[in-house]
What does this fold into?
Amino acid sequence: MKKVLKNVSFVFLLLKMCFIFGQETVVQKRIIIDVGHGGKDSGAIGVNGIQEKDVVIKIALEILRINEQSKMPLHIYLTRYSDTLISLSDRTKLAKALNADLFVSLHCNHSNNESAVGVEVYTSRKQSTYSKESVYIGYLFEKALSDQIGYKIRGVKFADFQVLRETVGYCPSVLLELGFLSNADESKFFQNSENFVIMAKVLLEGLDKNFSGYGRVGN
It folds into this structure.
């Protein structure tokens, strides 16, 4: 029954977003923030017991809150708004249904090497007309996180992650690994609620300043 209710809730969200899409008189850029994991899928677990699924939803909700308070808010949609597990295919279906202009998947990293630190950015190994844009936007996010928070840069990399593979043919698409929960210092960073606000501001500023040159505005 829980699985049925979860699927119904997601379908309702999808229909609601499509209705909004159809009612808009001016084409607006739509940004999908894919909030990794959720529900029974905790994702990485930090050395202090912090769970990846909780970190990324807190960051995403802060992005929404700050965005809604701005004078010119961006059109941002999340793949999940609570602690629920949404399938990878449903996440990418939402991006396609909304004709998204950018897909950003939020995650945290984990390594058996406890000294591993820094931010990693992934784009799809699959080539498309949006591949170069994806790499460039990923680089901008990485640089912003390094400059403003002090993260070590680990580089923009290519991977065959499903959420990237199934979206890069439709829009620029990146996956952000926002530090290592397996590292004591970076895991501790997320124990301070103020740092979720800081992280959200950096990511939102990156979207606001650097995304303006991309997308399908006018199409």
In short: The chain is about 45% helix and 20% strand.
